[in-house]
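I hope you will forgive my troubling you with a question about protein structure. Could you please explain, in whatever detail you think fit, how the structure tokens follow from the sequence? Thank you for your consideration; the sequence and its tokens are set out here.
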Amino acid sequence: MNAPSDRLLKTFRLRSTPSRQEILHLFLNKDYALSHGDIEKEINNELDRVTVYRTLKTFLDKGLIHKVLDDEGSLKYALCNDACSKTGHHHDHVHFKCTSCGQTNCLEVEVPVVKLPKGYRASEVNLLIQGICERCSR
């Protein structure tokens, strides 16, 4: 279907299947995070809900995508950067949700270091900034 998605699947040692190709193609062509529902709308019921869920879980487990939480508590997914693998996600960046268009983007802005009280240990850090994105502010 698409050479970039084939290469990416191969890099992450994933078998190329039509469902993986189609979902990965969506991530490669969108510059914002996608929810399960967003993906289902885009693929026009070509894949069932369970296949989409399993594909997202596989991509997440292999380090191909990462979770993005938004202000409504809904889960979205975005392509990982080069630092991720199946042994761990490394997303020390900010997520930005536009209050106008509703899209959530990964920004390559470092998350400030937060010193936790004694006895606390962070396993994941999420920083979401809300406002108007570059496209909507034009």
Observations:
- The first strand starts at residue 34 and ends at 35.
- The radius of gyration is 16 Å.
